[in-house]
Design goal:
alpha+beta, three-stranded antiparallel β-sheet, globular
Length: about 150
């Protein structure tokens, strides 16, 4: 929550100061820098989580992963957490740059179900989307997930 609040505050501050939106890469770099500052002192990593940061900006859509050491890397499709090695191999094999939003959503659901112990379809899946055209965060309804 601290990092999410930090990203929101950074983005809003940039908009208020410069009257323009901030790029996704800049937010990822800012959060990585914040995490890296804590690595300078012996064994202290209060922001000890990896985060996936995704969005649409002037350059288009992008996805970044930050980690507790302060690094950030851009990806086309990525998973983090338990079982992410298998899921990332699945995404690498099946993700295509020219996929439609619906095909990408189906791939995400298949990737989630790949490692779930209980295969109960979309019951436990929550999804949102940001289209390149609207640049608006929208929750995807259960009916649309079906």
């Amino acid at each position: 929550r601290v990092q999410v609040d930090n990203a929101r505050f950074f983005s809003q501050g940039n908009r208020m100061t410069y009257d323009e939106s901030v790029e996704v890469a800049t937010v990822a770099k800012h959060l990585a820098d914040q995490a890296h500052q804590f690595t300078q002192y012996g064994g202290v990593r209060p922001n000890g989580v990896s985060m996936i940061i995704a969005g649409v900006d002037q350059k288009g859509e992008s996805i970044y992963v930050t980690d507790p050491s302060g690094t950030y890397v851009q990806f086309a499709a990525i998973a983090i957490g338990a079982g992410s090695d298998d899921v990332n191999a699945f995404l690498e094999k099946n993700y295509k740059e020219d996929m439609s939003l619906e095909d990408a959503a189906a791939l995400a659901i298949a990737a989630i179900n790949l490692k779930k112990k209980e295969k109960n379809g979309i019951k436990d899946i929550k999804m949102a989307k940001v289209s390149t055209e609207s640049k608006i965060f929208e929750k995807v309804s259960e009916a649309d997930l079906e």
